[in-house]
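__Record contents__

***
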Amino acid sequence: MATEIDELIEQLKTTSVSAANTTNLLCEISATKDPKLFDKHELAECFLGLTKCDDTNVRKEAAKCIAEITKSEVQRKKFTKRNIIAAFLECLRHVPTPDGSMELPIQICRALGNICYLNDEARDLILELEGDAVLLRLLDITTIEDATNAAQFIKVRGGLLSNYLLGGEGLAKRAMELGVMKKLQGIIDIGASNVEQHEDLLLNTLPLLSILTENVADLNFESSLNIQLSRILAASINPDLAEMCLELLHYQAESDEVKLILAKDGLCETIYNLLEKYKTLASTSEARALMKLACELIVLILTGDDSMHYLYTTPLLKNMVDWLDSTDIDLLTTGVLALGNFARTDSHCIYFVEQQTMNKLLEVLAKNNGVKDDVRLQHALLSALRNLVIPKPNKNAVIQAGLVQTILPMLEIHQPPVVFKLLGTLRMTVDGQEKLALELLKNKTLIEQLVHWSKSSDYAGVTGESLRLMAWLIKHAYLSKIAYALPRKGDAPAEQIADKIPLTQDYDRSSLSEFLANEGTVEAMVSMLTAQHLVMQNEALIALCILSVVYLSQASEAAQAQRLQDELVKCEVGKKLAELISKSSDTMTKEIVENLQNCVNLLKSSEQLVAHLEQHNINELLKSIPILTEYCTL
Protein backbone atom coordinates (compact mmCIF):
# COMPACT_ATOMS: atom_id res chain seq x y z
CA MET A 1 0.00 0.00 0.00
CA ALA A 2 2.86 2.39 0.84
CA THR A 3 4.32 1.86 -2.62
CA GLU A 4 0.98 2.68 -4.23
CA ILE A 5 0.80 5.90 -2.19
CA ASP A 6 4.32 6.83 -3.27
CA GLU A 7 3.34 6.35 -6.89
CA LEU A 8 0.18 8.43 -6.52
CA ILE A 9 2.10 11.28 -4.90
CA GLU A 10 4.76 11.18 -7.63
CA GLN A 11 2.14 11.27 -10.35
CA LEU A 12 0.38 14.20 -8.67
CA LYS A 13 3.60 16.20 -8.44
CA THR A 14 4.44 15.62 -12.11
CA THR A 15 0.96 16.16 -13.51
CA SER A 16 -0.14 19.54 -14.78
CA VAL A 17 -2.81 21.08 -12.57
CA SER A 18 -5.07 21.45 -15.56
CA ALA A 19 -4.67 17.84 -16.59
CA ALA A 20 -7.84 15.80 -16.77
CA ASN A 21 -6.59 13.07 -14.47
CA THR A 22 -5.71 15.42 -11.56
CA THR A 23 -9.15 15.03 -10.09
CA ASN A 24 -8.95 11.25 -10.32
CA LEU A 25 -5.56 11.22 -8.57
CA LEU A 26 -6.91 13.42 -5.78
CA CYS A 27 -9.91 11.14 -5.37
CA GLU A 28 -7.63 8.11 -5.01
CA ILE A 29 -5.44 9.91 -2.46
CA SER A 30 -8.40 11.07 -0.34
CA ALA A 31 -9.77 7.51 -0.35
CA THR A 32 -6.68 6.25 1.50
CA LYS A 33 -7.78 4.92 4.88
CA ASP A 34 -4.52 5.39 6.80
CA PRO A 35 -3.39 9.05 6.78
CA LYS A 36 -0.06 8.10 8.39
CA LEU A 37 1.03 6.60 5.08
CA PHE A 38 1.59 10.18 3.89
CA ASP A 39 3.79 11.21 6.84
CA LYS A 40 7.12 10.90 5.01
CA HIS A 41 6.02 13.09 2.11
CA GLU A 42 6.30 16.88 1.74
CA LEU A 43 2.97 17.77 0.23
CA ALA A 44 2.17 21.31 1.38
CA GLU A 45 3.64 23.19 -1.59
CA CYS A 46 2.11 20.80 -4.09
CA PHE A 47 -1.36 21.18 -2.61
CA LEU A 48 -1.00 24.95 -2.25
CA GLY A 49 -0.97 25.22 -6.03
CA LEU A 50 -4.00 22.95 -6.28
CA THR A 51 -6.01 25.09 -3.81
CA LYS A 52 -5.51 28.11 -6.10
CA CYS A 53 -6.62 26.31 -9.26
CA ASP A 54 -9.36 27.95 -11.30
CA ASP A 55 -11.17 24.65 -11.52
CA THR A 56 -13.57 24.54 -8.57
CA ASN A 57 -13.72 20.75 -8.71
CA VAL A 58 -9.93 20.46 -8.41
CA ARG A 59 -9.92 22.87 -5.48
CA LYS A 60 -12.68 20.90 -3.79
CA GLU A 61 -10.85 17.57 -4.21
CA ALA A 62 -7.55 19.14 -3.11
CA ALA A 63 -9.19 20.48 0.07
CA LYS A 64 -10.74 17.07 0.65
CA CYS A 65 -7.31 15.44 0.32
CA ILE A 66 -5.79 17.90 2.78
CA ALA A 67 -8.63 17.16 5.20
CA GLU A 68 -7.81 13.44 5.04
CA ILE A 69 -4.01 13.82 5.09
CA THR A 70 -4.03 16.21 8.07
CA LYS A 71 -5.75 13.67 10.27
CA SER A 72 -2.11 12.75 10.92
CA GLU A 73 -0.30 14.91 13.47
CA VAL A 74 2.85 14.95 11.32
CA GLN A 75 1.03 16.35 8.30
CA ARG A 76 -0.94 18.83 10.45
CA LYS A 77 2.38 20.44 11.30
CA LYS A 78 3.60 20.33 7.69
CA PHE A 79 0.44 22.04 6.43
CA THR A 80 0.67 24.77 9.08
CA LYS A 81 1.80 27.30 6.49
CA ARG A 82 0.74 30.92 6.39
CA ASN A 83 0.02 30.88 2.64
CA ILE A 84 -2.10 27.71 2.85
CA ILE A 85 -4.19 29.00 5.73
CA ALA A 86 -4.53 32.39 4.01
CA ALA A 87 -5.78 30.67 0.86
CA PHE A 88 -8.42 28.75 2.82
CA LEU A 89 -9.56 31.87 4.66
CA GLU A 90 -9.86 33.78 1.40
CA CYS A 91 -12.16 31.11 0.06
CA LEU A 92 -14.30 31.17 3.22
CA ARG A 93 -14.71 34.93 2.88
CA HIS A 94 -16.93 34.24 -0.12
CA VAL A 95 -19.29 31.76 1.50
CA PRO A 96 -21.99 31.26 0.45
CA THR A 97 -20.67 30.98 -3.08
CA PRO A 98 -22.47 32.66 -6.00
CA ASP A 99 -23.92 29.36 -7.16
CA GLY A 100 -25.01 28.48 -3.62
CA SER A 101 -23.05 25.22 -3.59
CA MET A 102 -21.56 24.27 -0.21
CA GLU A 103 -19.33 21.43 -1.44
CA LEU A 104 -16.10 23.47 -1.57
CA PRO A 105 -16.74 25.34 1.74
CA ILE A 106 -17.42 21.99 3.40
CA GLN A 107 -14.05 20.54 2.37
CA ILE A 108 -12.19 23.73 3.30
CA CYS A 109 -13.84 23.74 6.74
CA ARG A 110 -12.78 20.11 7.15
CA ALA A 111 -9.21 20.79 6.08
CA LEU A 112 -8.77 23.92 8.18
CA GLY A 113 -10.49 22.27 11.12
CA ASN A 114 -8.12 19.29 11.01
CA ILE A 115 -5.08 21.54 10.69
CA CYS A 116 -6.26 23.46 13.81
CA TYR A 117 -6.79 20.32 15.88
CA LEU A 118 -4.47 20.51 18.91
CA ASN A 119 -2.33 22.93 16.89
CA ASP A 120 -1.72 26.31 18.53
CA GLU A 121 0.63 27.38 15.76
CA ALA A 122 -2.15 27.11 13.18
CA ARG A 123 -4.60 28.91 15.48
CA ASP A 124 -2.10 31.73 15.97
CA LEU A 125 -1.73 32.10 12.20
CA ILE A 126 -5.51 32.39 11.81
CA LEU A 127 -5.54 35.07 14.49
CA GLU A 128 -2.66 36.98 12.84
CA LEU A 129 -4.53 36.90 9.53
CA GLU A 130 -7.70 38.12 11.30
CA GLY A 131 -9.23 34.88 10.16
CA ASP A 132 -11.25 34.54 13.35
CA ALA A 133 -13.69 37.13 12.02
CA VAL A 134 -13.97 35.09 8.81
CA LEU A 135 -14.69 31.91 10.73
CA LEU A 136 -17.28 33.57 12.98
CA ARG A 137 -19.08 35.05 9.96
CA LEU A 138 -19.90 31.47 8.98
CA LEU A 139 -22.33 31.54 11.90
CA ASP A 140 -24.32 34.24 10.09
CA ILE A 141 -25.30 31.70 7.45
CA THR A 142 -28.74 30.63 8.61
CA THR A 143 -30.31 29.89 5.21
CA ILE A 144 -28.55 27.30 3.05
CA GLU A 145 -29.79 26.90 -0.51
CA ASP A 146 -27.78 23.71 -1.07
CA ALA A 147 -30.21 21.51 0.83
CA THR A 148 -28.27 18.32 0.00
CA ASN A 149 -25.16 19.55 1.80
CA ALA A 150 -26.76 21.76 4.45
CA ALA A 151 -26.44 19.26 7.31
CA GLN A 152 -22.81 18.49 6.43
CA PHE A 153 -21.92 22.19 6.33
CA ILE A 154 -23.49 22.77 9.74
CA LYS A 155 -21.47 19.87 11.12
CA VAL A 156 -18.07 20.90 9.71
CA ARG A 157 -18.65 24.57 10.56
CA GLY A 158 -19.15 23.55 14.18
CA GLY A 159 -16.11 21.30 14.09
CA LEU A 160 -13.86 24.01 12.62
CA LEU A 161 -14.95 26.63 15.16
CA SER A 162 -14.63 24.15 18.03
CA ASN A 163 -11.08 23.14 17.09
CA TYR A 164 -10.14 26.80 16.76
CA LEU A 165 -11.75 28.05 19.98
CA LEU A 166 -10.27 25.19 21.98
CA GLY A 167 -7.04 27.18 21.68
CA GLY A 168 -7.77 28.78 25.02
CA GLU A 169 -8.83 31.89 26.87
CA GLY A 170 -7.32 34.43 24.49
CA LEU A 171 -9.12 33.12 21.40
CA ALA A 172 -12.39 32.79 23.31
CA LYS A 173 -12.22 36.38 24.60
CA ARG A 174 -11.44 37.65 21.10
CA ALA A 175 -14.49 35.74 19.81
CA MET A 176 -16.59 37.42 22.49
CA GLU A 177 -15.38 40.81 21.27
CA LEU A 178 -16.44 39.85 17.75
CA GLY A 179 -19.99 39.13 18.94
CA VAL A 180 -19.99 35.36 18.96
CA MET A 181 -22.65 35.15 21.68
CA LYS A 182 -25.17 37.15 19.66
CA LYS A 183 -24.54 34.91 16.65
CA LEU A 184 -24.96 31.73 18.72
CA GLN A 185 -28.08 33.11 20.36
CA GLY A 186 -29.60 33.65 16.91
CA ILE A 187 -28.85 30.08 15.85
CA ILE A 188 -30.21 28.64 19.10
CA ASP A 189 -33.39 30.68 18.71
CA ILE A 190 -33.88 29.03 15.32
CA GLY A 191 -33.15 25.60 16.80
CA ALA A 192 -35.52 26.09 19.72
CA SER A 193 -38.38 26.99 17.40
CA ASN A 194 -38.50 23.36 16.25
CA VAL A 195 -36.07 21.15 18.15
CA GLU A 196 -36.83 17.98 16.22
CA GLN A 197 -36.32 19.65 12.84
CA HIS A 198 -33.18 21.52 13.89
CA GLU A 199 -31.59 18.82 16.03
CA ASP A 200 -28.34 18.69 14.00
CA LEU A 201 -28.06 22.48 14.11
CA LEU A 202 -28.27 22.43 17.90
CA LEU A 203 -25.95 19.44 18.30
CA ASN A 204 -23.26 21.30 16.36
CA THR A 205 -23.81 24.71 17.96
CA LEU A 206 -24.15 24.03 21.69
CA PRO A 207 -20.56 22.66 21.97
CA LEU A 208 -19.34 26.15 21.07
CA LEU A 209 -21.20 27.52 24.09
CA SER A 210 -19.54 24.88 26.26
CA ILE A 211 -16.07 25.86 24.99
CA LEU A 212 -16.74 29.54 25.65
CA THR A 213 -18.07 28.72 29.10
CA GLU A 214 -14.86 26.87 29.95
CA ASN A 215 -12.57 29.59 28.63
CA VAL A 216 -14.30 32.85 29.54
CA ALA A 217 -14.40 33.47 33.28
CA ASP A 218 -17.84 34.21 34.74
CA LEU A 219 -19.60 33.97 31.40
CA ASN A 220 -23.25 34.70 32.12
CA PHE A 221 -25.76 34.00 29.38
CA GLU A 222 -28.68 36.30 28.66
CA SER A 223 -31.83 35.20 30.51
CA SER A 224 -33.49 34.46 27.19
CA LEU A 225 -30.71 32.03 26.25
CA ASN A 226 -31.02 30.14 29.54
CA ILE A 227 -34.76 29.87 28.99
CA GLN A 228 -34.21 28.62 25.44
CA LEU A 229 -31.86 25.92 26.75
CA SER A 230 -34.53 24.92 29.23
CA ARG A 231 -37.12 24.71 26.44
CA ILE A 232 -34.78 22.68 24.22
CA LEU A 233 -34.25 20.24 27.10
CA ALA A 234 -37.99 19.86 27.49
CA ALA A 235 -38.58 19.25 23.79
CA SER A 236 -35.63 17.04 22.87
CA ILE A 237 -35.60 13.27 22.84
CA ASN A 238 -31.91 13.12 21.90
CA PRO A 239 -29.78 12.18 24.96
CA ASP A 240 -26.69 13.97 23.60
CA LEU A 241 -28.62 17.20 23.19
CA ALA A 242 -30.17 16.79 26.63
CA GLU A 243 -26.73 16.30 28.16
CA MET A 244 -25.39 19.47 26.51
CA CYS A 245 -28.33 21.52 27.79
CA LEU A 246 -28.00 20.12 31.30
CA GLU A 247 -24.27 20.80 31.47
CA LEU A 248 -24.68 24.38 30.25
CA LEU A 249 -27.55 25.02 32.65
CA HIS A 250 -25.51 23.53 35.49
CA TYR A 251 -22.80 26.08 34.94
CA GLN A 252 -25.21 28.97 34.57
CA ALA A 253 -27.20 27.93 37.65
CA GLU A 254 -24.21 28.68 39.87
CA SER A 255 -25.74 32.17 39.85
CA ASP A 256 -28.65 32.65 42.28
CA GLU A 257 -30.31 34.99 39.79
CA VAL A 258 -30.28 32.26 37.14
CA LYS A 259 -31.59 29.72 39.66
CA LEU A 260 -34.68 31.87 40.17
CA ILE A 261 -35.17 32.42 36.43
CA LEU A 262 -35.00 28.68 35.76
CA ALA A 263 -37.25 27.91 38.72
CA LYS A 264 -39.91 30.33 37.47
CA ASP A 265 -39.62 28.93 33.95
CA GLY A 266 -40.55 25.50 35.28
CA LEU A 267 -37.23 23.76 34.60
CA CYS A 268 -37.39 21.61 37.75
CA GLU A 269 -40.87 20.38 36.88
CA THR A 270 -39.66 19.71 33.32
CA ILE A 271 -36.80 17.60 34.63
CA TYR A 272 -39.13 15.79 37.03
CA ASN A 273 -41.51 14.89 34.20
CA LEU A 274 -38.65 13.74 31.96
CA LEU A 275 -37.18 11.58 34.70
CA GLU A 276 -40.55 10.05 35.47
CA LYS A 277 -41.00 9.33 31.77
CA TYR A 278 -37.60 7.78 31.14
CA LYS A 279 -36.56 6.39 34.55
CA THR A 280 -37.17 2.78 33.54
CA LEU A 281 -34.89 3.22 30.53
CA ALA A 282 -31.81 4.26 32.51
CA SER A 283 -30.20 0.85 32.20
CA THR A 284 -26.87 1.85 30.65
CA SER A 285 -24.07 3.73 32.39
CA GLU A 286 -24.49 6.64 29.96
CA ALA A 287 -28.22 6.90 30.62
CA ARG A 288 -27.66 6.67 34.35
CA ALA A 289 -25.04 9.44 34.21
CA LEU A 290 -27.51 11.65 32.33
CA MET A 291 -30.18 10.91 34.91
CA LYS A 292 -27.84 11.91 37.75
CA LEU A 293 -26.92 15.12 35.95
CA ALA A 294 -30.60 16.02 35.70
CA CYS A 295 -31.20 15.19 39.36
CA GLU A 296 -28.23 17.30 40.42
CA LEU A 297 -29.61 20.31 38.55
CA ILE A 298 -32.86 20.17 40.54
CA VAL A 299 -30.87 20.16 43.77
CA LEU A 300 -28.55 22.93 42.58
CA ILE A 301 -31.49 25.22 41.76
CA LEU A 302 -32.92 24.57 45.23
CA THR A 303 -29.73 25.80 46.90
CA GLY A 304 -30.71 29.38 46.02
CA ASP A 305 -32.82 31.06 48.69
CA ASP A 306 -35.22 32.86 46.33
CA SER A 307 -35.57 29.86 44.01
CA MET A 308 -36.16 27.54 46.98
CA HIS A 309 -38.90 29.78 48.38
CA TYR A 310 -40.54 30.02 44.96
CA LEU A 311 -40.45 26.26 44.34
CA TYR A 312 -41.88 25.62 47.82
CA THR A 313 -45.16 26.99 46.45
CA THR A 314 -45.15 24.75 43.37
CA PRO A 315 -46.01 21.07 42.77
CA LEU A 316 -42.29 20.28 42.93
CA LEU A 317 -42.51 20.03 46.72
CA LYS A 318 -45.03 17.19 46.54
CA ASN A 319 -43.07 15.58 43.71
CA MET A 320 -39.96 15.44 45.87
CA VAL A 321 -41.94 13.98 48.79
CA ASP A 322 -43.31 11.34 46.39
CA TRP A 323 -39.76 10.37 45.43
CA LEU A 324 -39.20 9.25 49.03
CA ASP A 325 -41.17 6.16 47.98
CA SER A 326 -39.04 5.58 44.87
CA THR A 327 -37.10 2.36 44.47
CA ASP A 328 -34.57 4.16 42.27
CA ILE A 329 -31.62 5.22 44.41
CA ASP A 330 -30.94 8.39 42.42
CA LEU A 331 -34.53 9.61 42.51
CA LEU A 332 -34.78 8.74 46.19
CA THR A 333 -31.55 10.57 47.02
CA THR A 334 -32.65 13.58 44.98
CA GLY A 335 -35.96 13.70 46.84
CA VAL A 336 -34.11 13.68 50.17
CA LEU A 337 -31.60 16.33 49.05
CA ALA A 338 -34.41 18.52 47.74
CA LEU A 339 -36.34 18.29 51.00
CA GLY A 340 -33.18 19.06 52.93
CA ASN A 341 -32.85 22.25 50.90
CA PHE A 342 -36.51 23.14 51.44
CA ALA A 343 -35.86 22.66 55.19
CA ARG A 344 -33.80 25.81 55.48
CA THR A 345 -36.40 27.85 57.36
CA ASP A 346 -38.08 27.09 60.67
CA SER A 347 -41.55 27.38 59.16
CA HIS A 348 -40.76 24.82 56.46
CA CYS A 349 -39.22 22.47 59.02
CA ILE A 350 -42.23 22.71 61.30
CA TYR A 351 -44.51 22.05 58.34
CA PHE A 352 -42.55 18.92 57.42
CA VAL A 353 -42.93 17.56 60.93
CA GLU A 354 -46.65 18.40 61.05
CA GLN A 355 -47.22 16.73 57.67
CA GLN A 356 -45.32 13.57 58.68
CA THR A 357 -42.65 14.14 56.02
CA MET A 358 -40.13 13.76 58.82
CA ASN A 359 -41.52 10.29 59.56
CA LYS A 360 -41.05 9.29 55.93
CA LEU A 361 -37.43 10.44 56.08
CA LEU A 362 -36.89 8.37 59.22
CA GLU A 363 -38.45 5.34 57.54
CA VAL A 364 -36.03 5.70 54.65
CA LEU A 365 -33.10 6.09 57.05
CA ALA A 366 -34.15 3.04 59.06
CA LYS A 367 -33.85 0.99 55.85
CA ASN A 368 -30.50 2.54 54.92
CA ASN A 369 -28.55 2.97 58.17
CA GLY A 370 -26.10 0.13 57.72
CA VAL A 371 -22.42 -0.06 56.81
CA LYS A 372 -23.17 -1.38 53.31
CA ASP A 373 -25.89 1.12 52.43
CA ASP A 374 -25.49 4.03 50.00
CA VAL A 375 -23.26 6.70 51.56
CA ARG A 376 -24.64 9.55 49.46
CA LEU A 377 -28.19 8.72 50.53
CA GLN A 378 -27.16 8.46 54.18
CA HIS A 379 -25.44 11.83 54.01
CA ALA A 380 -28.51 13.41 52.41
CA LEU A 381 -30.88 11.91 55.00
CA LEU A 382 -28.79 13.08 57.94
CA SER A 383 -28.49 16.57 56.42
CA ALA A 384 -32.25 16.84 56.04
CA LEU A 385 -32.99 15.49 59.52
CA ARG A 386 -30.40 17.80 61.05
CA ASN A 387 -32.24 20.77 59.54
CA LEU A 388 -35.63 19.47 60.71
CA VAL A 389 -34.50 19.09 64.32
CA ILE A 390 -33.14 22.64 64.68
CA PRO A 391 -36.47 24.44 65.45
CA LYS A 392 -37.32 23.96 69.14
CA PRO A 393 -40.98 23.03 68.47
CA ASN A 394 -39.75 20.05 66.40
CA LYS A 395 -37.27 18.51 68.81
CA ASN A 396 -39.62 16.51 71.01
CA ALA A 397 -41.63 15.24 68.04
CA VAL A 398 -38.52 14.10 66.20
CA ILE A 399 -37.13 12.42 69.32
CA GLN A 400 -40.46 10.68 69.95
CA ALA A 401 -40.49 9.50 66.33
CA GLY A 402 -37.28 7.57 67.01
CA LEU A 403 -34.55 9.68 65.44
CA VAL A 404 -31.89 8.80 67.99
CA GLN A 405 -32.62 5.07 67.93
CA THR A 406 -32.47 5.14 64.14
CA ILE A 407 -29.13 6.91 63.82
CA LEU A 408 -27.17 5.35 66.72
CA PRO A 409 -26.55 2.12 64.75
CA MET A 410 -24.75 4.31 62.23
CA LEU A 411 -21.86 4.69 64.69
CA GLU A 412 -20.44 1.62 62.96
CA ILE A 413 -20.11 3.61 59.74
CA HIS A 414 -16.70 5.25 59.38
CA GLN A 415 -17.19 7.28 56.20
CA PRO A 416 -16.13 10.80 57.31
CA PRO A 417 -18.92 12.74 55.49
CA VAL A 418 -21.58 10.48 57.04
CA VAL A 419 -19.99 10.59 60.49
CA PHE A 420 -19.78 14.39 60.33
CA LYS A 421 -23.49 14.70 59.56
CA LEU A 422 -24.39 12.01 62.10
CA LEU A 423 -22.65 13.86 64.92
CA GLY A 424 -24.05 17.21 63.85
CA THR A 425 -27.58 15.76 63.81
CA LEU A 426 -27.16 14.34 67.33
CA ARG A 427 -25.75 17.63 68.56
CA MET A 428 -28.70 19.62 67.22
CA THR A 429 -31.09 17.05 68.70
CA VAL A 430 -29.76 17.29 72.29
CA ASP A 431 -29.95 21.10 72.27
CA GLY A 432 -32.16 21.90 75.26
CA GLN A 433 -33.13 18.23 75.72
CA GLU A 434 -31.92 17.41 79.23
CA LYS A 435 -33.44 13.92 79.44
CA LEU A 436 -31.92 12.83 76.13
CA ALA A 437 -28.53 14.30 77.02
CA LEU A 438 -28.52 12.39 80.31
CA GLU A 439 -29.33 9.16 78.46
CA LEU A 440 -26.63 9.64 75.84
CA LEU A 441 -23.95 10.40 78.46
CA LYS A 442 -24.56 6.85 79.70
CA ASN A 443 -24.23 5.33 76.22
CA LYS A 444 -20.80 3.71 76.48
CA THR A 445 -20.65 2.79 72.79
CA LEU A 446 -21.35 6.37 71.76
CA ILE A 447 -18.90 7.98 74.18
CA GLU A 448 -16.09 5.56 73.39
CA GLN A 449 -16.57 6.21 69.68
CA LEU A 450 -16.60 9.97 70.23
CA VAL A 451 -13.34 9.80 72.16
CA HIS A 452 -11.81 7.66 69.43
CA TRP A 453 -12.90 10.01 66.64
CA SER A 454 -11.73 13.06 68.59
CA LYS A 455 -8.20 11.65 68.61
CA SER A 456 -7.80 9.65 65.43
CA SER A 457 -9.91 11.11 62.64
CA ASP A 458 -8.03 12.51 59.64
CA TYR A 459 -11.15 14.55 58.88
CA ALA A 460 -11.07 17.80 60.88
CA GLY A 461 -14.84 18.11 60.80
CA VAL A 462 -15.31 14.74 62.50
CA THR A 463 -12.74 15.59 65.19
CA GLY A 464 -14.47 18.89 65.91
CA GLU A 465 -17.99 17.46 65.94
CA SER A 466 -16.92 14.62 68.27
CA LEU A 467 -15.56 17.10 70.79
CA ARG A 468 -18.52 19.44 70.44
CA LEU A 469 -21.07 16.67 70.93
CA MET A 470 -19.41 15.59 74.18
CA ALA A 471 -19.36 19.19 75.41
CA TRP A 472 -23.01 19.69 74.42
CA LEU A 473 -24.08 16.50 76.21
CA ILE A 474 -22.49 17.76 79.42
CA LYS A 475 -23.96 21.23 79.02
CA HIS A 476 -27.54 20.24 78.21
CA ALA A 477 -27.64 17.47 80.81
CA TYR A 478 -26.34 19.52 83.76
CA LEU A 479 -26.22 23.25 83.12
CA SER A 480 -29.71 23.84 84.47
CA LYS A 481 -28.81 21.88 87.61
CA ILE A 482 -25.62 23.76 88.49
CA ALA A 483 -26.23 27.21 86.98
CA TYR A 484 -26.74 28.61 90.49
CA ALA A 485 -23.09 27.84 91.26
CA LEU A 486 -21.43 29.55 88.32
CA PRO A 487 -19.78 32.77 89.58
CA ARG A 488 -20.51 35.98 87.78
CA LYS A 489 -18.70 39.28 87.73
CA GLY A 490 -18.54 40.73 91.25
CA ASP A 491 -18.86 37.35 93.00
CA ALA A 492 -16.78 36.39 95.98
CA PRO A 493 -13.04 35.77 95.61
CA ALA A 494 -12.06 32.50 94.08
CA GLU A 495 -11.09 30.84 97.32
CA GLN A 496 -14.64 31.31 98.65
CA ILE A 497 -16.48 29.95 95.60
CA ALA A 498 -16.58 26.35 96.76
CA ASP A 499 -17.87 27.49 100.11
CA LYS A 500 -20.82 29.34 98.56
CA ILE A 501 -22.16 26.24 96.73
CA PRO A 502 -25.00 24.98 98.96
CA LEU A 503 -24.71 21.44 100.25
CA THR A 504 -28.45 20.96 99.88
CA GLN A 505 -28.40 21.00 96.09
CA ASP A 506 -29.03 17.41 95.08
CA TYR A 507 -29.27 15.89 91.61
CA ASP A 508 -28.39 12.65 89.89
CA ARG A 509 -24.70 12.60 88.95
CA SER A 510 -24.78 9.07 87.57
CA SER A 511 -24.86 10.07 83.89
CA LEU A 512 -21.83 12.28 84.24
CA SER A 513 -20.05 9.68 86.36
CA GLU A 514 -20.58 7.05 83.67
CA PHE A 515 -19.36 9.51 81.05
CA LEU A 516 -16.16 10.19 83.02
CA ALA A 517 -15.62 6.47 83.57
CA ASN A 518 -14.78 6.24 79.86
CA GLU A 519 -11.07 6.72 79.33
CA GLY A 520 -10.13 9.91 77.52
CA THR A 521 -13.25 11.99 78.20
CA VAL A 522 -11.57 14.53 80.49
CA GLU A 523 -8.60 14.69 78.16
CA ALA A 524 -10.97 15.42 75.26
CA MET A 525 -12.55 18.38 77.04
CA VAL A 526 -9.16 19.77 78.08
CA SER A 527 -7.72 19.40 74.56
CA MET A 528 -10.74 21.26 73.21
CA LEU A 529 -9.54 24.40 75.03
CA THR A 530 -7.01 24.99 72.26
CA ALA A 531 -9.34 24.25 69.36
CA GLN A 532 -9.00 26.53 66.37
CA HIS A 533 -12.49 28.00 66.68
CA LEU A 534 -13.58 30.33 69.48
CA VAL A 535 -16.99 28.67 69.74
CA MET A 536 -15.34 25.32 70.58
CA GLN A 537 -13.04 26.97 73.12
CA ASN A 538 -16.10 28.46 74.80
CA GLU A 539 -17.93 25.12 74.81
CA ALA A 540 -14.91 23.44 76.41
CA LEU A 541 -14.83 26.11 79.16
CA ILE A 542 -18.52 25.57 79.91
CA ALA A 543 -18.06 21.79 80.09
CA LEU A 544 -15.10 22.15 82.47
CA CYS A 545 -17.09 24.60 84.62
CA ILE A 546 -19.85 22.01 84.94
CA LEU A 547 -17.40 19.23 85.79
CA SER A 548 -15.82 21.45 88.44
CA VAL A 549 -19.13 22.38 90.08
CA VAL A 550 -20.35 18.78 90.11
CA TYR A 551 -17.15 17.16 91.39
CA LEU A 552 -15.02 19.80 93.10
CA SER A 553 -17.67 21.23 95.45
CA GLN A 554 -17.93 20.25 99.12
CA ALA A 555 -21.06 18.28 98.30
CA SER A 556 -19.10 15.91 96.04
CA GLU A 557 -17.72 12.57 97.07
CA ALA A 558 -14.05 12.82 97.97
CA ALA A 559 -13.05 9.91 95.73
CA GLN A 560 -14.76 11.36 92.67
CA ALA A 561 -13.32 14.80 93.35
CA GLN A 562 -9.81 13.43 93.69
CA ARG A 563 -10.14 11.38 90.53
CA LEU A 564 -11.18 14.45 88.52
CA GLN A 565 -8.37 16.54 90.01
CA ASP A 566 -5.81 13.90 89.12
CA GLU A 567 -7.17 13.66 85.57
CA LEU A 568 -7.07 17.41 85.08
CA VAL A 569 -3.48 17.61 86.27
CA LYS A 570 -2.51 14.63 84.13
CA CYS A 571 -4.07 16.30 81.07
CA GLU A 572 -2.18 19.51 81.93
CA VAL A 573 -5.24 21.71 82.11
CA GLY A 574 -3.01 24.57 83.30
CA LYS A 575 -0.82 24.33 80.24
CA LYS A 576 -3.87 24.25 77.94
CA LEU A 577 -5.40 27.28 79.64
CA ALA A 578 -2.11 29.15 79.31
CA GLU A 579 -1.97 28.23 75.62
CA LEU A 580 -5.58 29.34 75.14
CA ILE A 581 -4.90 32.75 76.71
CA SER A 582 -1.63 33.27 74.84
CA LYS A 583 -3.05 32.41 71.43
CA SER A 584 -6.61 33.72 71.62
CA SER A 585 -6.67 36.57 74.14
CA ASP A 586 -6.80 39.24 71.42
CA THR A 587 -9.93 37.74 69.83
CA MET A 588 -11.81 36.66 72.97
CA THR A 589 -15.38 37.87 73.38
CA LYS A 590 -16.78 39.04 76.70
CA GLU A 591 -18.66 35.72 77.07
CA ILE A 592 -15.52 33.64 76.60
CA VAL A 593 -13.54 35.77 79.06
CA GLU A 594 -16.27 35.41 81.69
CA ASN A 595 -16.40 31.64 81.18
CA LEU A 596 -12.60 31.49 81.35
CA GLN A 597 -12.66 33.37 84.67
CA ASN A 598 -15.43 31.11 85.94
CA CYS A 599 -13.47 28.01 84.94
CA VAL A 600 -10.24 29.15 86.60
CA ASN A 601 -12.06 30.23 89.76
CA LEU A 602 -13.88 26.91 90.01
CA LEU A 603 -10.67 24.95 89.48
CA LYS A 604 -9.13 26.94 92.33
CA SER A 605 -11.59 25.40 94.73
CA SER A 606 -9.11 22.50 94.72
CA GLU A 607 -5.79 23.10 96.50
CA GLN A 608 -4.12 20.61 94.19
CA LEU A 609 -5.31 22.55 91.15
CA VAL A 610 -4.40 25.92 92.68
CA ALA A 611 -0.78 24.79 92.79
CA HIS A 612 -1.04 23.36 89.29
CA LEU A 613 -2.43 26.61 87.87
CA GLU A 614 0.24 28.66 89.62
CA GLN A 615 2.91 26.57 87.89
CA HIS A 616 1.55 27.85 84.59
CA ASN A 617 1.22 31.47 85.73
CA ILE A 618 -2.52 31.57 85.00
CA ASN A 619 -3.28 34.54 87.27
CA GLU A 620 -0.79 36.78 85.50
CA LEU A 621 -1.87 35.60 82.08
CA LEU A 622 -5.49 36.47 82.88
CA LYS A 623 -4.43 40.03 83.61
CA SER A 624 -2.95 40.30 80.11
CA ILE A 625 -6.26 39.70 78.28
CA PRO A 626 -7.00 42.96 76.40
CA ILE A 627 -10.74 42.99 77.11
CA LEU A 628 -10.07 42.81 80.86
CA THR A 629 -7.43 45.50 80.61
CA GLU A 630 -9.99 47.74 78.88
CA TYR A 631 -12.47 47.20 81.69
CA CYS A 632 -9.83 48.15 84.24
CA THR A 633 -8.90 51.29 82.28
CA LEU A 634 -12.52 52.37 82.08
In short: The radius of gyration is 36 Å. Residues 1-217 form a domain with the Leucine-rich Repeat Variant fold (CATH 1.25.10.10).
